[in-house]
Structure formats: structure tokens, C-alpha cells
């Protein structure tokens, strides 16, 4: 039988099994970040803002993400919960904010599953152009469902190896690129920084172009917050969460910064192929092609396929745990607290997958209009979650001080508090507000563009205010924030 704990409503609920190790949570968080944003979108970033603009934008977003992860890591190490920032907002800010953050994040990942289902079918068409999309859809669903149904350890192992493939690819790419840059491989003279300074480089397009990439870079780093979700099923969160936070930051910065610098050196940012979203002209493929690897496109196609499987796998895990915690906290129907004998939130898992499949089916009707609106509504979710993390951490530490608790009780202390969460909140707010700034810069406001880009914000506000009005919640005084840790 599973262990028992008591939720906020006084009901007993089974505990999730703590079977994730440090290597699992490190790779889960890392794998959630390295994907199509690096393998495909990095080329477009360099083409639009030049190598200097792309490097600056990704470095600034990387610093913001670092502070977010230290904030989340401090709370998760002290109070591990599968509800993560939803639970922390409920305890340290306002239950209405926790409710809205939780449902917002669940919806985001449920829709992400639909997007990955659609993407996998397109990827498989590269090798099997005459095959049925339905076949690959079923195969994808069965793979991610199986990994999530078996046990949390099986999920952790599958995600560990999915992430390892991506990490190994980036490492090999960086090594090969450096050898080519210095003229050791490829039979060409050293290129150095020559391609950085052609045309109007290295900052092509000036400030606005770099700012546009700054916004896009934020999407590339989304997924790092999975680290907080895994805390509820980690065997020693006080030890493993801090280790994961420290290693993830350096790996992300090294991978993204070195990879983008290498692409910028080897491929002129004026090369029109960088703007293509075709796998065959991914910047990674272009570099491997230049080395003379004939099967470069097929290789990158296979790696991007594992990235899609990884995203779907993590999406199902994160959203099912969030829904389970919402139910435990009384923010979702009680049926979703039900765990299988293996400690898996079975009904939360099945509902999430069903919503993802229904959203995917919506792409076949009305020219996909409904599906595109569903995707647009989820676009802001990651940034809203990040804002929630920064604000919750600021309140958490202030409540710690207000209640006279010694910060030595914290298994891990976030660096540069209070600068860290305040900086992260400010930068993230700039990203959210500036999401489609061009809609406001023409002769007249592009209202359709505004609606498409910002639809996620009013939906979040409706959830927040709806719960607040119904339950008459208020911001929790610092002296009354719940800082008790369950044993």
C-alpha cells in the first residue's frame, strides 16, 4: 500500500513514490530545454539578429533562467511538492494564484502533447512519405503512455536516455565545429570570427532585432521548471535538487552559447538557409554537411524525433502530476487523486492524454483554426509560470524572515536574494509585455495580432479572479504563510 498524507481539505491521499535520482532530475530539466529551439530555431535567430545579437539574447535569457531555477530550487529543496509553483503560490501568496497557475500550467502541457503528436507525424513522413499519419500518432501515444504508466522510475530512465541523446549530439557538434573553425577538420582554412563581421554584423538589424530574438529565446529555455515538478518524487530533494540546479545552469549556458557561437562562425548569418524550418537545412545539418557527412539530414531528423518524444513524455508527466496535486489541494475533482499500485496518478494521466488527443484532432477541422487558437492560448503559460516562481520565492523568503526562522534551515539558498527573483520577474515581465510589440508600432494597432499573442493572459486572469471572487481569498499575511514541511 502507498503511504498516506493529509491534504488541505483534511482528506487523506496516497503519496507519490520517491524514485527519481539526482541524475534523473538533472537530465529531465536539461532535456526539457534542449530541443527544437536549439536544433532548428537557433539558425533563424542568428539570421535575424546576427551572431552577436543571438548570443547576447540567449545569454541574458540564460541568466534570467538561472535565477528562476535557484528560486525554484530553494523552495523545492525545502518543501518538495509535485504541485511546485502552484503549491508555493497557494501557501505563500494567495490560493487563487496557486489555482490559476496550476490549471494554466496543466493546460499548457496538455496542448504541448498535441503539438508533439502533430510534429512526430511530420518527422516520420521524412522517411516514410506514403505512410499513414494515424499510424505514427498511435505509436507515439503508446510510447509516452507506456513510459508514464509503468512507474516514475521508468519515466525517469526513459527521459534520462532521451536527454542523453540530445546532450551527446550537442557535445559532438561543438567539438566538430571547433575543429572546423581552427582548420583541423573539413580541409578548409581557419574561419575564426570572419563571419561575425560581414555585412552589418555582428549585431544585424540593431536593437529591435536583438530584442525580437530575446523574446524568442525565452521559449527555447522553457521546460527547466520541470525540475520543481520532479521534487515531489525525488528520493532526497534536499540533496538532489541543489545539485541539479547547479549543473543544469552551466550545461545550458555552455551548450547554447557555444553552439550558437559555432554556428555563427561557420555559417554566414546572411545565408538564407538559416531561416528555413526544414530539417534538411537545420543549422546543425548544414555544419555536418560541410564536414561531408552524407546522412547529416537523416541523423538530425532522428535526433529531433527523440526531442519530440522527450517533450511528449515530459509533458504527460508534468501535467498529470500538476493535476494530481490540484486535486489533492482541493482545486480539482477528487477522482484525480487516485493512484495506481505503482504510484501513478492514473486518472490525471488519462485525462491529460485525452485532452491532448482531442486538441490534436481539432487540427483536422476548419483548416486547423481551433487548434491554432488552442496553441496560442498556451503560448504565454510558461512565462506566466516563471513570473509565479519569482514572486512566490520573494514572498517565501520574506515570510521566513517575518516568522523569525533562521535561513540556515534551508537545504539550499538561492544566490543573490533578493536581486535574483526581482531581476527574473522584471526580465520575464518585459518578455511577456513585448511578446508582439510590432502589433503596436504600425499606423494602426493590429488587434488580431494582439489577440493571438496575448490571449493567454486574459484566460489566466479569468481563472485567478474567478477563484478569488468565488472563495473570497486574499493575499496571505507573511506571518501566516504555511512554512510547515510534511515529514
Report what the structure shows.
- Its main location: membrane.
- This is Lysine-specific permease.
- Residues 24-474 form the Amino acid permease/ SLC12A domain.
- With 487 residues, the chain is mostly helical.
- It has a single domain, classed as Amino acid/polyamine transporter I (Up-down Bundle).
- It has 18 helices and two strands.
- The chain has helices spanning 22-31, 36-39, 41-78, 84-92, 95-127, 133-150, 152-181, 206-220, 226-230, 237-266, 283-291, 296-328, 346-362, 369-378, 381-402, 419-433, 447-454, 456-471, and strands at 4-6, 12-14.
- A two-stranded antiparallel ribbon has the order 1-2.
- It is globular.
Q: Any key phrases for this structure?
A:
487 residues, mainly alpha, Amino acid/polyamine transporter I, two-stranded antiparallel ribbon, 2 strands, 66% helix, 1% strand
* Mean pLDDT score: 85
Number of strands: 2
H-E string: EEHHHHHHHHHHHHHHHHHH
CATH topology: Amino acid/polyamine transporter I
Measured between the Cα atoms of the first and last residue, the distance is 18 Å
What is the strand arrangement across the widest sheet?
1-2
Subcellular location: Membrane
Transmembrane segments: 25-47, 53-72, 106-128, 134-152, 164-185, 205-227, 248-270, 290-312, 344-365, 371-396, 416-435, 447-467
Protein name: Lysine-specific permease
Keywords: Amino-acid transport, Membrane, Transmembrane, Transmembrane helix, Transport
Topology:
Layout: E1 4-6, E2 12-14, H1 22-31, H2 36-39, H3 41-78, H4 84-92, H5 95-127, H6 133-150, H7 152-181, H8 206-220, H9 226-230, H10 237-266, H11 283-291, H12 296-328, H13 346-362, H14 369-378, H15 381-402, H16 419-433, H17 447-454, H18 456-471
Antiparallel strand pairs: 1-2
Helix pairs in contact: 1-7, 1-10, 3-8, 3-10, 3-15, 3-16, 4-5, 4-15, 5-6, 5-12, 5-13, 5-14, 5-15, 5-18, 6-7, 6-12, 7-10, 7-11, 7-12, 11-12, 12-13, 13-14, 15-16
Amino acid at each position: 500500500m502507498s503511504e498516506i498524507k493529509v491534504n488541505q481539505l483534511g482528506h487523506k491521499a496516497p503519496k507519490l513514490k520517491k524514485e527519481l535520482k539526482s541524475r534523473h532530475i538533472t537530465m529531465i530539466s536539461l532535456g526539457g530545454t534542449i530541443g527544437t529551439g536549439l536544433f532548428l530555431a537557433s539558425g533563424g535567430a542568428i539570421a535575424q539578429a546576427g551572431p552577436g545579437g543571438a548570443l547576447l539574447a540567449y545569454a541574458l535569457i540564460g541568466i534570467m533562467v538561472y535565477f528562476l531555477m535557484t528560486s525554484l530550487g530553494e523552495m523545492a529543496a525545502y518543501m518538495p511538492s509535485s504541485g511546485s509553483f502552484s503549491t508555493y503560490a497557494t501557501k505563500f501568496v494567495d490560493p487563487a494564484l496557486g489555482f490559476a497557475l496550476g490549471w494554466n500550467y496543466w493546460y499548457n502541457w496538455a496542448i504541448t502533447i498535441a503539438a508533439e503528436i502533430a510534429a512526430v507525424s511530420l518527422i516520420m513522413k521524412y522517411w516514410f512519405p506514403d505512410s499513414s499519419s494515424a499510424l505514427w500518432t498511435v505509436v507515439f501515444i503508446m510510447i509516452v503512455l507506456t513510459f508514464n504508466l509503468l512507474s516514475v522510475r521508468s519515466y525517469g530512465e526513459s527521459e534520462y536516455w532521451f536527454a542523453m541523446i540530445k546532450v551527446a549530439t550537442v557535445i559532438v557538434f561543438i567539438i566538430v565545429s571547433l575543429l572546423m573553425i581552427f582548420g583541423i577538420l573539413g580541409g578548409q582554412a581557419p574561419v575564426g570570427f570572419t563571419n561575425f563581421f560581414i555585412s552589418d554584423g555582428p549585431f544585424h538589424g540593431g536593437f529591435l532585432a536583438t530584442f525580437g530574438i530575446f523574446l524568442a529565446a525565452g521559449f527555447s529555455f522553457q521546460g527547466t521548471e520541470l525540475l520543481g515538478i520532479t521534487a515531489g518524487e525525488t528520493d532526497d530533494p534536499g540533496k538532489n535538487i541543489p545539485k541539479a540546479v547547479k549543473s543544469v545552469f552551466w550545461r545550458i549556458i555552455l551548450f547554447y552559447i557555444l553552439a550558437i557561437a559555432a554556428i555563427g562562425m561557420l555559417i554566414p548569418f546572411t545565408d538564407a538557409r538559416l531561416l528555413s524550418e526544414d530539417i534538411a537545412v537545420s543549422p546543425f545539418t548544414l555544419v555536418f554537411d560541410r564536414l561531408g557527412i552524407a546522412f547529416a539530414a537523416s541523423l538530425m531528423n532522428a535526433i529531433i524525433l527523440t526531442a519530440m518524444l522527450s517533450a511528449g513524455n515530459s509533458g504527460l508527466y508534468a501535467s498529470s502530476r500538476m493535476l494530481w496535486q490540484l486535486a489533492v489541494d482541493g482545486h480539482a475533482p477528487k477522482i484525480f487523486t487516485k493512484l495506481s499500485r505503482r504510484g501513478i496518478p492514473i486518472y490525471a494521466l488519462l485525462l491529460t492524454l485525452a485532452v491532448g488527443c482531442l486538441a490534436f484532432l481539432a487540427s483536422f477541422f476548419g483548416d486547423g483554426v481551433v487548434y491554432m487558437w488552442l496553441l496560442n492560448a498556451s503560448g504565454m503559460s510558461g512565462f506566466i509560470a516563471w513570473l509565479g516562481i519569482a514572486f512566490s520565492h520573494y514572498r517565501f523568503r520574506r515570510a521566513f524572515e517575518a516568522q523569525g526562522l533562521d535561513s540556515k534551515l534551508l537545504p539550499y539558498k538561492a544566490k543573490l536574494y533578493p536581486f535574483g527573483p526581482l531581476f527574473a520577474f522584471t526580465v520575464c515581465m518585459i518578455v511577456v509585455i513585448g511578446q508582439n510589440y510590432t502589433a503596436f508600432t504600425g499606423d494602426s494597432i493590429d488587434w488580431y495580432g494582439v489577440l493571438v499573442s496575448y490571449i493567454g493572459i486574459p484566460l489566466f486572469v479569468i481563472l485567478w479572479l474567478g477563484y478569488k471572487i468565488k472563495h473570497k481569498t486574499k493575499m496571505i499575511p507573511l506571518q501566516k504563510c504555511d512554512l510547515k514541511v510534511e515529514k
